[in-house]
């Protein structure tokens, strides 16, 4: 359990300034504001279901599948569910398959690969092999559905297996994203201190109007 928790915290650690929550931190830091405001901004960003909050969404999505079809590895059943998710006809009807796809990683997410191994180990220890096998089968079905419906080559991201892994450790759903925050805090603090030290200019994005112009 301790080894699995260490793995989770390492895999969820900050991985550069480009991700949404770290960038939120950098933007607030550039105003000269205190570290508490900057970390709060990062936490607020990470709560979003398309960012760190996705780990809870993935698990809720998985629980819905288990409730409806049980621990099945039938590729057709799971493919149909994936298609329904993309067509906004299942779960929260957002059109998203939580845990599948990443802005940078398209072929594979190395964090997801390591997370998958940890999840498999814990599932075996807890007698939940069927749950893990169902999630693996759904991963394959979801990737195929993304290819067929959207023409996108996608892969599981770090959130796909993290929810089940956290639950196997006995951690409540309400703490999934806070655990992610704990792992990210060291990086957020470092970015904040770096920006203060360098006296970085105020970050202000340039917006370009692309609407109609009066003739």
Summarize the structure.
This protein is an all-alpha fold. Helix content is 61%, strand content 0%.
Tag the structure with descriptive keywords.
215 residues, mainly alpha, 9 helices, globular
Molecular structure report:
With 215 residues, the chain is mainly alpha-helical. It is 61% helix and 0% strand. It contains nine helices and no strands. Helix 1 (2-11) packs across helix 9 (176-198) and helix 5 (75-86) packs across helix 7. It is globular and about 55 Å long. The model has no long low-confidence stretch (mean pLDDT 92).
Q: How would you describe the shape?
A: globular
Q: Tell me roughly what share of residues is in helical segments.
A: 55-70%
- The total beta strand count reads 0
Oligomeric form of this entry? single chain
Which ranges are low-confidence, i.e. pLDDT below 50, for 5 or more consecutive residues?
none
Helix segment tally: 9
Beta-strand content estimate: under 5%
Radius of gyration: 19 Å
Q: Would you list the SSEs in sequence order as H and E?
A: HHHHHHHHH
SS-derived structural category: mainly alpha
Largest sheet: none
Distance separating the two termini: 67 Å
- State mean pLDDT (0 to 100 scale): 92
């Amino acid at each position: 359990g301790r080894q699995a928790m260490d793995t989770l915290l390492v895999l969820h650690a900050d991985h550069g300034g480009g991700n949404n929550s770290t960038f939120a931190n950098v933007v607030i830091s550039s105003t000269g504001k205190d570290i508490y405001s900057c970390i709060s901004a990062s936490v607020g960003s990470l709560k979003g279901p398309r960012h760190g909050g996705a780990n809870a969404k993935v698990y809720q999505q998985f629980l819905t599948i288990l409730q409806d079809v049980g621990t099945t590895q039938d590729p057709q059943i799971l493919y149909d569910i994936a298609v329904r998710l993309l067509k906004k006809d299942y779960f929260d009807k957002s059109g998203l398959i939580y845990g599948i796809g990443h802005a940078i990683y398209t072929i594979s997410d190395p964090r997801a690969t390591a997370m998958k191994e940890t999840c498999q180990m814990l599932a075996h220890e807890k007698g939940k092999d069927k749950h893990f096998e169902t999630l693996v089968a759904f991963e394959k079905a979801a990737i195929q559905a993304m290819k067929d419906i959207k023409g996108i080559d996608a892969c599981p991201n770090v959130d796909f297996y993290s929810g089940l892994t956290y639950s196997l450790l006995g951690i409540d759903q309400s703490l999934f994203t806070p655990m992610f925050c704990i792992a990210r805090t060291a990086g957020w603090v470092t970015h904040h201190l770096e920006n203060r030290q360098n006296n970085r200019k105020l970050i202000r994005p340039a917006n370009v109007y692309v609407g109609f112009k009066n003739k």
